[in-house]
Amino acid sequence: MLTIGEFSKICRVSPKTLRYYEAIGLLQPRLVNPMTGYRFYAADQLETMRLINHLKAYSFTLEEIKLLVVTLSGKPEDLTAALTEKKQELRRQAEQLTQQLQQLDRDIQNLHDGHSLFANGDEIPVQLTEVADSELLSWRLMVQEQAFPQAYKQCFGTLLEKLQAGSLTMSWAPMVLFHDAQFSDEGLDTEFAVPVAETTPETRLFQPGLCLKTVVSGIQADFAAVYARLIHTAQVQGYHSSGPLFEVYLSDPQDHPETLITEVYYPVTKNKMKRGENNGFPENEGFE
């Protein structure tokens, strides 16, 4: 048997950390002296500690490690599945870091050339268009910003299963509606939706009507600038919001993020004009 000091020295983990692992049920001492409270570990627990350290190096959380090591007893098939999923997660993170590095290069070059770090949005084309009514098969929930990719995958996966089970016909591309009037620490009030041709007890009528619209390319596009441009255009041209802003995905961001095409819509209605006023912009034409 090894004392907690000896065990910690071999594993290069502090006694404080070992006591914490004991408290959360991750790694229990093989023996605790009831008189002195001294803790002892068996030699075979060194292998368990090595596995814990190994998984931590791959950024597994302690909760995930406990599931694999304690609940599932470190079975090879479970470890293989977990490591494969972690590999995919790290690959996605690597792609995001690559995109961030590329954006950093562009920002540095823009500053070096004397340009502003942010575009003012004037170059974003905005069109006024009428969007037809449709039935939506949807799932609405609160989503934290960092959890959006997982929620996108889960919600649209479930909706597509319902689509197939009910033999429903998709009438437009998948979309996401943002119902929040302002940011909340609880997340975004988000509705994932698939427009369908049929009306069922599970669908709802969606009537966006008149909208300001723009098209965005790529997953790293500055959506904040896009939203600001739409809202600013509405204010300047005498419109106000009449419904939740929504995005329509013409391609799947999970497949090829770099080629993602997104249509962004801002439902609006015209402010009441005083006699003799004219907005000067007919519908279905672009705003400069």
> How many angstroms separate the termini?
78 Å
Instruction: Give the CATH architecture of the largest domain.
Output: Alpha-Beta Barrel
Helix content: 25-40%
By DSSP (H or I, 4+ residues per run), the number of helices equals 7
Strand count: 13
CATH class of the largest domain: Alpha Beta
Q: Hey, roughly how much beta strand do the residues contain?
A: 15-25%
Low-pLDDT sequence parts: none
Query: How would the global form be characterised?
Result: elongated
CATH topology of the largest domain: Multidrug-efflux Transporter 1 Regulator Bmrr, Chain A
CATH superfamily of the largest domain: Regulatory factor, effector binding domain
Order of helices and strands: EHHEEHHHEEHEEEEHEEEE
Average pLDDT confidence is 88
Structure commentary:
Residues 1-71 form the HTH merR-type domain. GO terms for molecular function: DNA binding; DNA-binding transcription factor activity. Keywords: Coiled coil, DNA-binding, Repressor, Transcription, Transcription regulation. Residues 80-114 form a coiled coil. This is MerR family transcriptional regulator. The strands form 2 sheets. Strands 4, 5, 6, 7, 8, 9, 10, 11, 12 and 13 form a 10-stranded antiparallel β-sheet that branches. The chain has 2 domains: 2-74, Multidrug-efflux Transporter Regulator, Chain: A, Domain 2 (Orthogonal Bundle); 126-287, Regulatory factor, effector binding domain (Multidrug-efflux Transporter 1 Regulator Bmrr, Chain A, Alpha-Beta Barrel), CATH 3.20.80.10. By secondary structure, it is α+β, with helices and mostly antiparallel strands. The model has no long low-confidence stretch (mean pLDDT 88). Helix content is 38%, strand content 24%. Strand 2 (31-32) and strand 3 form a beta hairpin.
